[in-house]
Amino acid sequence: MKNVIVACGSGVATSQTVASKVKRILDENNVRANVEAVDIKSLDSYIRSADVYVSITKSNKEYEIPTLNGIAFLTGMGLEEEKQKLIDALK
Amino acid sequence: MGYGSLFSEELITLDASYSSQEDLFRSAAKHLVDLGYIEETYLNALMTREKDFPTGLETQYCNIAIPHTDAPHIKHPFIYLVRLNENLQFKNMGDTESEVAVKIVMFLGIKNPKKQISLLSDLMEKFQEEKISRIILNGHDAKELETNLKEIF
């Protein structure tokens, strides 16, 4: 099973919210994957086993896996594009 | 799952003016301490968190900010809504090098992140609806807005 990780500052609210939205989109599109919200401090240890990274805060760091704009999942702005990237990355 | 009960007249401030984000945060913290929702430690924790992880967001109908901090600083869950008279600049959550001019600030008092997981997602979904954004942007007084928000959420 593929893994999606979502990271935000503290994991209090935003990453969990985005993770549940991502999970819902995947369910609606019959894509099976694990979705996990993580604390940004532990991102590096999770990213090794991840297939897609949904980022809340823009980072200068480059990752080798597809990185999506998490804010789109929160606000709906630009969501269709990110949704497509998400599904394509997990096919 | 409804959390309309989190909205109350005393937690709605309409058309207030603040000289800066810090001025807004100080006033909000004072109000929330007076009402017994937060610990004295809240203000510093909130300001530090906003600096490290800003919460300005562009949504379709208006720009909002959702300042929040960790659960130990919260006594009772709350949503404190402040509609600003003059927009205030907040750093953008998704790109901290840019800023958004914010009209609606919702201070989120999250006491139990696991139980309140749907709170933020519901809030954000409602802000994607024009009708609901208009109600919040144009509501005449706190009492009326409380009634409307209780119905919506």
From TrEMBL, chain A:
Keywords: Transferase. It comes from the Bacteria. The keyword Transferase applies. SUPFAM superfamilies: PTS system IIB component-like. GO terms for biological process: phosphoenolpyruvate-dependent sugar phosphotransferase system. Residues 2-91 form the PTS EIIB type-2 domain. The keyword Translocase does not apply. PROSITE patterns: PTS_EIIB_TYPE_2 (PS51099). GO terms for molecular function: protein-N(PI)-phosphohistidine-sugar phosphotransferase activity. InterPro entries: PTS_EIIB-like_sf, PTS_EIIB_2, PTS_EIIB_2/3. This is PTS galactitol transporter subunit IIB. It comes from Salinicoccus sediminis. The lineage of its organism: Bacteria, Bacillati, Bacillota, Bacilli, Bacillales.
From TrEMBL, chain B:
InterPro entries: PTrfase/Anion_transptr, PTS_EIIA_type-2_dom, PTS_SugarTrans_NitroReg. Residues 5-152 form the PTS EIIA type-2 domain. SUPFAM superfamilies: Phoshotransferase/anion transport protein. It comes from the Bacteria. Pfam families: PTS_EIIA_2. PANTHER family: PHOSPHOTRANSFERASE SYSTEM MANNITOL_FRUCTOSE-SPECIFIC IIA DOMAIN CONTAINING PROTEIN, PTS SYSTEM FRUCTOSE-LIKE EIIA COMPONENT-RELATED. Homodimer or homotrimer. Seems to be a monomer when not phosphorylated. This is PTS EIIA type-2 domain-containing protein. It comes from Salinicoccus sediminis.
